[in-house]
Design brief:
Blueprint lengths: L1 H28 L4 H22 L3 H6 L4 H24 L2 H8 L2 H13 L5 H18 L11 H20 L5 H19 L9 H27 L2 H7 L2 H14 L5 H33 L1
Helix pairs in contact: 1-4, 1-10, 1-12, 2-4, 2-9, 2-10, 4-5, 4-8, 4-9, 5-8, 5-12, 6-7, 6-8, 6-13, 7-13
Keywords: Membrane, Transmembrane, Transmembrane helix
InterPro entries: EamA_dom, EmrE-like
Protein name: Permease of the drug/metabolite transporter (DMT) superfamily
Length: 295
């Protein structure tokens, strides 16, 4: 019971810090190039990934060893690109709208798992996916009657992250979680360091404080999430991560003056409900298959 309570505490801490991180990212990207912000953020993430790998069983040598180097490279590049797109989206369409669209991720993952992982999706999950995308259409519903092309940015971010998640599942068949975490941090940092310096802009002294906080939130949120996964099943944690949408919306409205329409809120509720059902159904089927294999 105590470990479960600690797991929930770590999960809520991680989600809260992720939301704060999004708010800080929006503030910084409003003044500086997204690639520059992402590069500095990745430097801290890389140091954290290397430190975690060094303390893991087998140390760095074990973490570096991978049977899928090409896919690990692709994963790292996908997440790096997704982070740049995501933090750009916070400024282009707002925190609340971005997170609402990002919440369609589990639906995209379920669809991509069919061709890439060879998984089968039954009619219940297909129905949930279809209903979820109706919610996405509500979120995208333009007040002017014309589709706002700016929404393509968070949609692209959601798709990039979905590909990253599916490839992570694919490599997990042969590589350890620590190996994947190590390559996520190192590949992303190297990629950003090759591009970011071309966008270097003088950063104001007070914004270096925000940049430092951004790095700290990036490290601490991942640490708390790792601890949460040590204590709780993924099926418990994943639905709770939707709270980030709520927290980000509060930050967006209270600090950045964003406005939430009724259709956007209704669409987000539908997407979240469909996503939670998809996650639960996937877990239930996996548990059923495991029982059948044991008997």
């Amino acid at each position: 019971m105590k470990s479960n309570t600690a797991g929930y505490v770590f999960t809520l801490l991680a989600i809260s810090i992720f939301a704060i991180q999004d708010g800080i990212s929006k503030h910084l990207v409003s003044a500086y190039p997204p690639l520059l912000v992402a590069m500095i953020r990745y430097w801290a993430f890389m140091l954290f990934a290397v430190a975690m790998a060094s303390r893991s069983p087998g140390g760095l040598r074990s973490a570096v060893r991978t049977k899928r180097p090409t896919l690990q490279l692709a994963r790292g590049l996908l997440l790096a690109a997704q982070i740049v797109v995501a933090i750009s989206s916070f400024v282009i369409v707002g925190l609340a709208h971005s997170q609402a669209i990002f919440s369609s991720g589990p639906l995209m993952v379920a669809m991509l798992s069919i061709p890439i992982l060879g998984e089968k999706v039954g009619w219940r999950r297909w129905l949930a996916i279809c209903i979820g995308f109706v919610g996405v259409l509500l979120i995208l519903k333009p007040e002017s009657g014309l589709f706002d092309t700016r929404f393509l940015v968070p949609l692209g971010g959601a798709l990039l992250f979905s590909f990253y998640v599916v490839l992570t599942r694919y490599v997990s068949r042969e590589d350890s979680a620590m190996t994947s975490f190590f390559y996520t941090g190192v590949v992303g940092a190297v990629a950003m360091s090759c591009i970011g310096p071309f966008f270097w802009t003088t950063i104001a002294p007070h914004d270096w404080v925000f940049m430092g906080i951004l790095c700290l939130t990036g490290v601490s949120s991942h640490y708390f999430l790792i601890r949460a996964y040590d204590l709780l099943d993924a099926v418990v944690i994943q639905p709770l991560t939707y709270l980030q949408l709520v927290f980000s919306a509060i930050i967006g409205v209270a600090i950045f003056g964003e406005r939430l329409s009724a259709t956007m809120i209704a669409g987000a509720v539908i997407v979240v409900a469909a996503g939670i059902f998809t996650i639960w159904r996937e877990h239930a089927l996996a548990r059923t298959r495991l029982k059948m294999e044991r008997t």
